[in-house]
């Protein structure tokens, strides 16, 4: 009688399939291992290669996609097993996921203790949950909202499931924007101002998930951002701050996994959002934090009341972790800055830092307001003096010099390249600009190719309350390919309510 | 400027990928259509071929799995679009799924009206929901249990989303077993008895999802079961009953989709179970229904209290739809019959119908008890006389003659083929058999190859309370391949608690 392990070796094949964090394995439906193990399609299986392992979702295939004796793997499974083509892997039944019984208890109405969140979040961060199981967890936390204690537990669990950065300073400032507003790329401005004034701000930012640009995408136009923890420490040691991509540092990795499922379901809750924002900041070692919260009909936070409730929750949890936080609520009725898309936003940032006369004033104002909060929170400026000090540091060129030094420390300042194809969108009627739909504007920039095509996007020419004549350009579309330009124009033509003009 | 439709034609390719009901499309990540449309991985896209369409989940691939200009499709997407190799399909953004906003409302604590369930269930049945979205719906219905009205609404919605069978009779009897017990294959016995006595019983059954055999798998050993509605009507017209596979008739198709996700999550609720069971029976046109409910530690229903609560719910909803229902609670502490696996269960059925002296008495008793309930419910037997009449119909050969006629009408009576490989599992100690773990026994039969290998499974030699000597066979394992036999034996050796023997 053969030992079963010998039978269940399979030849690994890299499918190059992007399933995000979920590990997936494809086996021929007639594969002896499927029959012998009684593996069910959509079941969870344990894959082992040497000392590495991963729990994967099984799909069965017919036809010649996967040969018998072969295991075709998604990229997440391939990476986590650290394979090279032709390696052998073993497949078996995983132990039941103990923490899923805690999720089930939450589904059936029980409140979870702190160590329960630890177990769940650790398993999620290690890729042991299927996307379906994550959807159940998130839905349960929305159907019976997380209690105040549960939000604390979830936040702590998310911090503990990832890396933590440690800085040898008493004060480490940080900033987060509760997104939903295109443009609004204040981070490089804020970092430059406060580090020019001697504060420490080791900033990590994300790439776009569903937006036309994340801060990391925009910053990458100007300098390398994929810094590993060592490079990040070196840059911060040297310049007091950095503007890096968070993905290379693995802060609160469970958050990245949860966010994708939340977006797919379009289900989000206050508790989840608080844990998501703050777990990253706690893990990054922040002691003083400013939260940018644009409020508007088509922004993420839609009313003053919602902003106040969310602010209270954020500050409560931040304080529990020893972080001094302040929320700056602001106008979210239209984009901040003119550009939407990595290159176009980068140009706005440069024009503000370089004190160009045509620099977008709203972006400059928002940047100095946020920097001002951090200067006051940290005691670098007296109460009421923060904005003035920030503005001075911008106008005297200190912020621009610091930004260049940071870029050089990160690997070199780069020159943004303008897109070769452009076409204006013209006003169909004369009147006053009453309304801008931020979500449709973001979609327009994405259809033009952003963020993959870095130079794609749009430049906004008009602001709310401007008087506009029919035929006047409302914005300029930019694309790297004529097809994408045509496609975005087509969308703009079909949508009559991106810009609301009243006679 | 080209119209966008022209750009978004892709060449369809059949991947042969079994994703159950979820339509999935794989595109090269650098495919122009991905960039132009701003399609996000895991996003939902609308696929169109002629007049057919389907909403699919998008995965992006790198490498040479999918060529540019090609759309590789899962089997569900391929079938629903009715494609042949090389056909062109179009891809675009689907309209937002309106009913998902109802699901979100349910997540956030609102009760849903009847027409909301109609919209949700219709979209699920038409494959418009991703598996993630279904997981959110099910979790929301578990986190805030369905109200009594909601269970009625969900049941009605599930009936309306599929086909309905109509029978030109006043009385149409049916039977359902609230599973979890291996063996217990009473359906062919019950149908044969009651139709021999003139009742109408057009029975549809399912194939195994996670068990070693479904009734349809077992019955298929003895006769064809994949009857379309016309064939089913012909057989019932002729013989008064049939034992068919429900999958060919599309009764309550949303149920099949929901059940797979429930199983994957291991989340089930009373309301969902009631709607699942009864929607199929209502759609099948039943007027009188017996529900078999084995209760035991390792059965689906684990306590008398749970059985009573579930029974009340089932009867309440059945009555609301004009069905006279009775729940027969029974012993679920051990399998019923000796065989587990399609062929071995079929042999048990034949031995009962043929009145063999060694026929398993528990199976005969359970079959006649269930038939007796239907005979009394329908008025065919006086109160308290049902079991006697059923037993008489079995012993006088009437049921066996009827069974043969039904099999012939369905396409021919078949001879079960015994598995070529077998090996006993021996008692390790002497003593009394105190406990049988139904779940592990089922797993053992699956590891031996059931239900795909029809002759695989096991035959149980001992019953609870039997006195056993060490070395005596507890059961016989059957397999169609030596590797599978070895694998099952290995599992049996590793598990010490499938059989609990006390000295």
In what order do the strands lie side by side in the largest sheet of chain A?
Answer: 1-6-3-5-4-7
What's the N-to-C terminus distance of chain A? 86 Å
Low-confidence stretches of chain A: 1-7
Q: Regarding quaternary structure, how should these chains be classified?
A: homodimer
Counting DSSP E segments of at least 2 residues, the number of strands of chain A comes to 19
CATH topology of the largest domain in chain A: Pyrimidine Nucleoside Phosphorylase, Chain A, domain 2
The proportion of residues forming helix of chain A, as a percent range, comes to 40-55%
Structural class of chain A: alpha/beta
Largest interface: A-B, 70 and 70 residues
Counting structural domains of chain A, the number is 4
**General form of chain A:** globular
CATH class of the largest domain in chain A: Alpha Beta
Per DSSP, the total helix count of chain A is 19
The CATH superfamily of the largest domain in chain A turns out to be Nucleoside phosphorylase/phosphoribosyltransferase catalytic domain
Whole-number mean pLDDT of chain A: 92
What profile does the largest beta sheet of chain A have? 6 strands, mixed, barrel
Q: Mind telling me which CATH architecture of the largest domain in chain A this is? A: 3-Layer(aba) Sandwich
Q: Strand percentage of chain A, roughly?
A: 15-25%
User: From the alpha-carbon coordinates, what is the Rg of chain A to the nearest angstrom?
Assistant: 25 Å
């Amino acid at each position: 009688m053969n030992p079963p392990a010998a039978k269940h070796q399979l030849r690994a094949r890299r499918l190059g399939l992007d399933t995000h964090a979920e590990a997936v394995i494809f086996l021929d439906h007639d594969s002896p291992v499927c029959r012998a193990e009684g593996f069910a399609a959509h079941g969870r299986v344990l894959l082992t290669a040497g000392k590495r392992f991963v729990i994967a979702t099984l799909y069965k295939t017919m036809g010649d996609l996967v040969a018998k004796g072969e295991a075709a793997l998604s990229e997440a499974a391939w990476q986590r097993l650290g394979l090279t083509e032709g390696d052998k892997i073993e497949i078996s039944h995983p132990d039941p996921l103990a923490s899923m019984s805690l999720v089930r208890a939450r589904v059936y109405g029980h409140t979870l203790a702190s160590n329960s969140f630890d177990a769940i979040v650790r398993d999620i961060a290690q890729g042991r949950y299927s996307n379906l199981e994550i959807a159940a967890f998130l839905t349960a936390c929305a159907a019976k909202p997380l209690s105040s204690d549960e939000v604390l537990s979830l936040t702590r669990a998310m911090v503990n499931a990832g890396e933590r950065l440690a800085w040898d300073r008493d004060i480490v400032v940080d900033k987060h924007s509760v997104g939903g507003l295109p443009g609004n790329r204040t981070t490089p401005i804020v970092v430059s101002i406060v580090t020019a004034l001697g504060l420490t701000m080791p900033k990590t930012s994300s790439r776009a998930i569903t937006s036309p640009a994340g801060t990391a995408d925009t910053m990458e136009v100007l300098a390398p951002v994929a810094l590993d923890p060592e490079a990040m420490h070196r840059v911060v040691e040297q310049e007091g701050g950095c503007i890096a991509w968070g993905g290379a540092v693995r802060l609160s990795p469970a958050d990245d996994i949860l966010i994708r499922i939340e977006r797919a379901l379009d289900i989000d809750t206050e508790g989840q959002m608080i844990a998501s924002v703050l777990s990253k900041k706690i893990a990054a070692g922040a002691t003083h934090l400013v939260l940018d919260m644009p409020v508007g009909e088509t922004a993420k936070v839609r009313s003053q009341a919602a902003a106040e409730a969310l602010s209270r929750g954020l500050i409560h949890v931040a304080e529990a972790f020893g972080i001094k936080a302040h929320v700056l609520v602001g106008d979210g009725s239209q984009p901040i800055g003119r550009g939407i898309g990595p290159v176009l936003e980068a140009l706005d940032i440069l024009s503000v830092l370089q004190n160009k006369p045509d620099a977008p004033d709203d972006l400059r104002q928002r940047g100095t307001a946020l920097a001002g909060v951090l200067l006051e929170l940290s005691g670098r400026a007296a109460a009421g003096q923060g904005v003035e000090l920030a503005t001075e540091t911008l106008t005297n060129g200190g912020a621009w010099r610091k930004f260049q030094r940071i870029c050089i420390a990160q690997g070199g300042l780069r020159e943004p390249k303008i897109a070769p194809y452009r076409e204006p969108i013209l006003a169909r009627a004369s009147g006053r600009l009453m309304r801008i739909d931020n979500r449709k504007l973001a979609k327009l920039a994405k259809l033009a190719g952003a963020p993959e095509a870095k130079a794609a996007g749009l430049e906004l020419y008009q602001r709310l309350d401007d008087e506009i004549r029919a035929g006047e350009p409302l914005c300029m579309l930019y694309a790297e390919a004529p097809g994408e330009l045509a496609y975005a124009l087509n969308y703009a033509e079909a949508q009559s309510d991106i810009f609301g003009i009243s006679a």
